[in-house]
Amino acid sequence: MIFVIFPAYNEERVIRPTLLALANAMRGREAEYRAVLVDDGSRDRTVAEAEAAVAESGRRLPLTLLRHEVNSGLGAGLRTGIYWCLDQAADADVIVTLDADNTHPPALIPALVARLEGGYDLAIASRYRAGAAVRGVPAYRRALSDVGRLVFQALCPIPGVRDYTCCFRAYRVPILRRARIAYGDQLCTARGFEAVMDLLLRLRPLGVRVTEMGFELDYGDRVGQSKMKVLQTIRTTLGLLARRRLEHWGKDSPRAVRARLALAEPAASPSGSAAAR
Description:
The chain is of the alpha/beta class. It has helices spanning about 15-25, 45-55, 75-90, 110-115, 140-155, 175-185, 195-205, 230-250, 255-265, 270-275, and strands at about 1-10, 35-40, 65-70, 95, 120-125, 135, 170, 210-215, 215-220. The strands form two sheets. It has a seven-stranded mixed beta sheet, sandwiched between helices. The longest helix is centred in the C-terminal third of the chain and has 19 residues, at about 230-250.
């Protein structure tokens, strides 16, 4: 089973085509996936438009709706969706995250999931691999991503990762189960767009095995303006980076995380212990 999580806040103008794109991409494979929409306290018609997408698909779109009564931020949306999926999933299943604004093409989900077959825990749709292209993205946003990539690679390197900020990812269930055990409700606490980076950094002490594939990011048909507050995002991202870097040598070092996992999973398999190196 592939669980596809869409964290959404006031996305009434784009959520219907986004979900319909997923339904079209997975046509004939309805039993193999489930869309999970996490509505983070939207004040518009996001939920109504999502339900309209189900009706328009002829009920072929398997959709679960999770709701926050108040807006709690992207990190909370990701955590709610991931933890709900983990409660339903088998270890052989995959959890995919992507933006709800129709800029990440759901048609790539099967190929992204297939990349996990090489023994990887995580596959990332990357703007920094062969075959990648970026269209319609404002220059300042591209510059932020480029600089952010270099800073994260220098200070918090993760083998196989070039794109730290793209939310379009496929995770094997076991790596997220172990992260949930290791961090509990602290798995992804950032409110803003830095939550995407935070989730990745939390997997670093677990020895996450990552692969990337290039994809085309096209903002040309994007509806509405980005919700990102640039200066605030820069400030909170730098604070997050400093905090996680310090924690990696302290309370969240690989050794400390292994110890927490050992206490929570006294019967952990040798393969699970090895993956935490």
